[in-house]
Amino acid sequence: MTDIRWKPPAAGHFVLNCDASVAQFGSLAGYGGLIRDFAGSLLCSFQAKRGGGSVLYAELRAILLGLKFAWSAFRLIRVDSDSREAINLLDGRCDLGHPQHQLVEEIHRFSGQYENEVWNHVVREANSVVDEMAKQALKMSFGFEEHEIAPDCILQALILISVPILPSRES
Description:
single chain, alpha/beta, six-stranded mixed β-sheet, 5 helices, 6 strands
């Protein structure tokens, strides 16, 4: 059985969960991200709506948006994404000819400013909070919004991932 609850980082470290949602045949993308500490406390979050692209492009763009968002206050960060392909590319398996090579390089250049960079794949259910944020972002106007408290669209999901849940599809 796979545990799909959110997993805290070490004390003094932070987790950036991020996700993207693509709509209208790839022409729109919604992004969501949040940062939590080792106790699981939600410190801040963001949502954005921009032009889209492929699902992989949007997942990578969500990571870059999240890293840029987190930079002002956090240096020891683990990035959690439910896109295994994005995490694999960030772990160094992105050939020069890959369509997302430039975006992966941009993420690496930016993340190099952090004291550590940890890319972590999580199951979709463990990323349900930011998945909902990304879907809801598709309904907002184009732009970027920061939240100091949890937006209403994720309150139920935050409660659900803090308790044991049924096995995931990957078990």
